[in-house]
Amino acid sequence: MPAAVIFDFDGIIVDTEPLHYKAFQEVLVPLGLGYSWEEYVGHYIGFDDRDAFREAYAAGGKALDADELSMMIGKKAAAFNCIIAAGVTPFPGVVELIRTLKGTCPIGLCSGALASDIAPILQQLHIGGVFDILVTADEVAASKPDPESYQLAVKRLAEAFPALSIAPARCLAIEDTPAGIASATAAGLKVLAVTNSYPEEKLGAAARVVESLVGIDLTGLDALFR
Prior knowledge:
Layout: E1 4-7, H1 17-28, H2 37-44, H3 49-59, H4 66-84, H5 94-101, E2 107-110, H6 115-124, E3 133-135, H7 148-160, E4 171-175, H8 178-186, E5 190-194, E6 208-210
Parallel strand pairs: 1-2, 1-4, 2-3, 4-5, 5-6
């Protein structure tokens, strides 16, 4: 078993990417900065809200100062929260895996989403207090693929469980995007990738790629941590 398991959020726990896309378009289309779902999947997935808005404004040839960026993030967060109020469905097997791991090894969540986006969904899924640590976009200067978020996640787990001597090479990240895989591997973690958002050939930098977390047995990955 890994010393700790760290889950991505969007694309691993819930399929929120279409919901994020819809929320982005609600605030960008009136400004003439909207883009297609194909563009979102090909370019924007993996960015946190800050970088997603920076990219959209740059693509539209418009300047974006700090005040307007903050305002746009707030508008998008409000739109997203309205959308998820109708309910969300987790990916198959993930909630069961999280509950199985709880108490077996430390578990964390490392996401490019805002804490305000994550909390209500975890509550809906009845796993609001399960994770030992959380790292969200609010807490880091650079989003994935930068390793900062995973470095912070491992640091917090090591501080929370000093007796376990948690180190990056003994931790497993569960990811679904090339940006997430790059972030985790640059921080020194092993990565289990799930083809929820990208086909297997796009996830080749992961140590292992699976189609689903249904019935996954992490003890079968012991060769990665020898």
